[in-house]
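Hi, here's the filled form for the chain we discussed.

Project: internal
Contact: R.S.
Residues: 81
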Amino acid sequence: MDKKLVKPREGLQIPRHDGNGNLPAEGMVVGMNSYYWGLKHDGDVTVENVPVEPEQPEAAAPGEPSQPAATASAEPKKSKK
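And the returned structure, exactly as it came back:
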């Protein structure tokens, strides 16, 4: 089942499909079914793709560099004699 962000049209109180109150004015991510598709068809709600949040890089542990260290060359350096 596709997940979508469903927002009620301004000024409407739209009951949730599961009976647990109404859709909030800012919208709610729901599993799309014939109930919500019917509301969209009637113009009572808007349906949007769920926004994808960019992944946050994990914070470095104390004492560890925040950037990866430069990798060593694959070939060893030749010593001067």
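Let me know if anything looks off before we file it.
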